[in-house]
Write a structure and sequence with these properties.
The relative contact order is 0.18. A six-stranded mixed β-sheet has the order 2-5-1-6-7-8, with helices on both faces. A two-stranded antiparallel ribbon has the order 3-4. It is globular. By secondary structure, it is an alpha/beta fold. The chain is built from eight helices and eight strands, in the order E-H-E-E-E-E-H-E-H-H-E-H-H-H-E-H.
Length: 216
């Protein structure tokens, strides 16, 4: 294994139409995952995407480390056509198949910034992560707020948004040790969006001392 190369493994979770597949495409710098607006769930199967080699994000012992990002896209839950058991089994098998040996660095819970997180249905994706990752889920989960441009359009900002968040969201943020990042569609190039998010994700992974969750 080349000490100057590292693969980062990520998995996307979230409700239908939260923007998971689009977030995955931004992380990969590609269009691997089908993403579109629809009145129903779009993603029906888990799929893995791999980025090209990335430079300038990590150094080890004074040497630059080349990174490659692997992202697992998963069906949204609640799903408009698939049952909870079907989605859970599909994701469970995909985690074991793709990250069983190498391990998962971080689960990314994708949450629309313009949709309040409250109620039983909104917590379904969180419960799915808990069931799949086990008791350690809090140490390996971060939140990606998509459609964050709506915060600025409403005349607000990130700090005010979090200050006014629902009790459900505040409790979730506390659980994951305030690991979160905002994803904007406007104002920045796709490359700038990607690098900003990846820098934050690498901070979270470093805080975890590059530990991973493995699956059987």
């Amino acid at each position: 294994m080349d000490p100057n190369k590292m693969i980062i493994n990520l998995a996307l979770f979230g409700m239908t139409q939260s923007g998971k597949s689009n977030a995955g495409n931004i992380l990969l710098g590609s269009t691997d995952f089908h993403s579109s607006f629809a009145p129903c769930s779009v993603t029906e199967h888990c799929s893995l995407g791999r980025s090209c080699h990335l430079h300038g994000l990590m150094r080890r012992a004074g040497q630059e480390v080349t990174l490659q990002v692997q992202v697992l896209d998963t069906p949204g839950y609640p799903h408009s056509r698939l049952s909870k058991d079907h989605v859970k089994q599909d994701v469970k098998e995909a985690l074991a198949r793709h990250f069983g040996q190498e391990g998962l660095h971080l689960a990314l819970l994708v949450q629309r910034a313009d949709v309040p997180l409250c109620g039983q249905e909104a917590s379904s994706a969180v419960h799915m992560i808990q069931e799949l990752l086990g008791q350690a889920w809090k140490n390996y989960t971060a939140i990606v707020f998509t459609h964050a441009e709506t915060i600025e359009e409403a005349g607000s900002n990130e700090d005010k948004y979090l200050h006014e968040a629902s009790d459900t969201l505040l409790a979730l943020l506390n659980s994951v040790q305030h690991r979160y990042v905002f994803q904007y569609k406007k104002g920045n190039s796709l490359h700038e969006q990607r690098m900003k998010i990846l820098v934050r994700i690498m901070e979270f992974i470093r805080e975890n001392c590059y530990q991973v969750l493995t699956f059987k």
